[in-house]
Write the structure tokens for this entry.
Amino acid sequence: MSASLVALIMFAFFIILIILEVPIGFSLGISGIIGLILLKESLLMFPQNLVSGINNFALMAIPFFVLLGNLLEKTQMAKTLVNLADEIIGFVPGGLAAVTVLASMLFATGSGSGPATVAAIGSITIPAMEEKGYSRKFSMGIAAAAGALGPIIPPSIPLIIYGVVAGESIAKLFLAGLGAGLLFTFLLIIFSIIKAKKEKVPLSGKRPNIKKILKAMWDAKEALGAPVVVLGGIYSGIFTPTESGAIGCLYVIFMGFFVTKTLKLKDFYNTLFEASKTSAMIMFVLAAAALFAWIMAAGRIPQIAAKFILSISHSKFVFLLLVNILFLFIGSVLDTPAAIVILVPILLPIATKLGINPIHFGAVVVVNFVIGYITAPFGYNLFVVKSITKRSMEEVTSAVFPFLLVTLIGLLLITYIPEITLFFPNMFNTR
């Protein structure tokens, strides 16, 4: 049996297991074992590939950034960021919605997680918006959509995974994510203002006052210090992303215990436990996906896919359009880490052959998958909003739909205007 046929059979088994609702890590692992048996390879390849799949120093950044996001939530630093955002932009029509977006962006600079961003900011702003006369759909939709900034704005866990798989600079990818994140922030704020005017939401904030803004910045100094430590360390070259994640955790732990005194031992234990579970899940998926990707490579699936796609068109425009359609679908049904490990080795060589910058392509890939966070049926952010509001999944999905369209506009802009994502990497010329 040819390796190509084995890879296709393995992929079919994987799809069947996903349909049967087998957890993604086990679906990948079982499919990989079937592939090894059909290839008549030693089953010792299974544990070897599991270990080699996560034997990368850069991947150690993931558990640190997961823990960092959880710590920021537990220390209640998110409240100070919401207050700061309110002083800056709360006066505009739809001010609380705009505050939700801006506060989510600020929180994202320390968390790298979509669900953590929704949980930290949405739990504060959703009830506040409803009290101020916002429709339930408006408040739920903007909170879920703004949470998508978590994995785009650096530090970003999906960008770390892409950097490891593609062999690209994580610092440059973070800077590319910064450009994409700022664009999404702008689009969501503008749409919130337009929607608030249309729905005649009452004004709730006062015009900005420099003294009050400075006071809010001072009150939020501990929360604002986290991205300064983490991102400043990375971009200055003092720390690697992994080291910055660890230093960031130590910073927030110190601030939580001894400065703000909002972190208790019990909360700290629970945070470590939750972060460990989340990190273990991500790492297991990455390990299982590595075996899956190895068998796909043995079956020359990347070369077959490249030949097929290039037979359709040699146009970068068409290729990127096909990639967006594929990734938007995959992102709504498949876990992001697994999707990156499986698909990037197949599609990145085609992208580079067509002259697409790998850093730009990484931003496009991650933004596609992040949009999956607010897309039914498996959008992480939707489940978080559902748990906050106690509403049905159908209601949450309906609420986020208009904001989903806005993110798709942002995706198209990022896809076909590479300068949006390449501006900061080119400016700083980061390694």
Observations:
- The radius of gyration is 22 Å.
- The chain has a mean pLDDT of 86.
